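Hey L., structure's done. Input below.
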Amino acid sequence: MLKPFDALVIREDLVMSRNDVTSPIIRTMRSAMSATGSQSSHAWLFWTCALGLPLLLMFSIAAQPWIAPGDLLRDPLAVAEMKTDCCKVYFGAVSNLGVLIWSSATAVCLFAAAMIIGVTGFTRNAIFLLTAGLFTGFLALDDLFLIHENVLPALGVSQPATYAAYALVAFGYLAVSYRQILQHRYLLFFVAGGLLATSVMIDWLIESEHVARILFEDGAKIAGISAWAVFHIEAAAQILKDQLTSPKALNSLRPTGDPVLDAS
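Output:
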């Protein structure tokens, strides 16, 4: 004869079994999140993607003898305006790559935020991912449309005022999200910020068309973008794993109307 405790254990196993059968999306999510978590300790992989690949790209651009580095690194519109033989498909290739990386990080952060908000509400992690996605999306638009270089100066906004406003927005994002940032690979985040700041300072303070200056400015920029994206994508994956496999999240995702699950 079963004791009450044994019956409770059997019932719990039955509930979980029926839950897995009737809700394959939860089972798939568990598997995907488990795989993501198993890779989270591979720090070398994140650092290689964040900094190793951009450095390799810069060395390749500097070493190749066929195309001027500036034609690959600068914004395609800026290159086209300087050239008499406009236009080539490779104009601004690295600049365009940076916009794609910004956009990828934006999409991941906003998708992760939407998933968490839909399941657990406006938690701190959801707000972190939402603000990260919005801020990164703004940086992508700025890079794509040259807002701080062309649009704002055309509207009469000085470059120092523009950089000061951007710095305030960045510090505001840091103030809102620093708790969540410190829970993940925060060193990667601050390296990204330092590289992006270095690129801005070179652009602002050094007026030169020397190839070394172009390589350092745009090399720091693409490495900073890459590190920023790797940090936020890895953080989003880890937050999704932690929050969407929690008992509260799984309970909200389970199917309704199941006589076994809904029995009192």
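The chain has one domain: 42-250. The radius of gyration is 24 Å.

-- N.
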